[in-house]
């Protein structure tokens, strides 16, 4: 049941700390501060390229994985939604491998991509939440997210658990390829193991996000902006808002704004910015400032360090706990999901069963 929660989605949002803890402890050893992955179906040191494919939110988790794997493991990654990948007829490298991501393990397009990849001689690893699913069975190996059953149609805890697994895979693959040292592995592991308690801190700040939701619920259109590994989280924020509140939302790479979407900016369009301090902060902040200069209402998620500079032009600044750049996509996913939830509640929509959507899309 929902316990004392109004919706399954709310209950599942509040399971983030537990689910992240369970998933991370499955693949990280807190004692040795090392990654502890099941045997991969490919040799990470020998594989020439990786294909990542999935649908919807699961694809966005894969997209964050691409940023992490390319960065930490220096392994080229191709990422595409399964419904495009399967018809693109992409050349697949000999000795190549793929990672498919799915909560249900039954999504028809992702299953079709799996079969195509196997026919193309790729070794396939799936990241799934349902151990007895078709995808887990047909892949060469499966890594499980430890999210438990997810009832709300809009993915929440399964998404962040997918991110947690992708993070562990990126460290492990980076280590195997010699681009992550033992010291780096320990540092990254320690940082990830703090994510569950930071997630709890964010959930405790619900009131701030509810106040932001009141503003967002009045809008007809909303933009989400992020750079680097926060770009897929901007896409996730927009997807979740569309799905459950039926408000039109778009996610963009912050640097792409000036190439078109900035034409949409006026005082009626809230701009939700994901802008943690770190190497990409200055560039993102300057994109936001451009939007603010055109009347855009900037609502920024950042951390204590980013809050100062952003509050010079942003209408609202929410300072999340300060974490290393590596963990920021996981932590920023939580408030954007929470925001979508509160906006949907204000709009009075059917949060757990949004119109036209099914939990598992088993038709192509
Ligand atoms: C978004 C959402 C969907 C799913 C997508 C893939 O909130 O839930 O976009 O992520 O349908 O489903 P799975 O992960 O079961 O393959």
UniProtKB/TrEMBL annotation:
Active site positions: 359 (for fru-6p isomerization activity)
EC number in record: 2.6.1.16
Localization in the cell: Cytoplasm
Enzyme class, broadest EC rank: transferase
Key words, A-Z: Aminotransferase, Cytoplasm, Glutamine amidotransferase, Repeat, Transferase
Catalysed reaction, written as an equation: D-fructose 6-phosphate + L-glutamine = D-glucosamine 6-phosphate + L-glutamate
GO-annotated molecular function: glutamine-fructose-6-phosphate transaminase (isomerizing) activity
Annotated ranges, domain SIS: 40-179, 212-354
Subunit structure, as described in the record: Homodimer.
Protein name: Glutamine--fructose-6-phosphate aminotransferase [isomerizing]
Provenance organism: Siccirubricoccus soli
Gene of this entry: glmS
Parent-record interval covered: 244 to 607 of 607
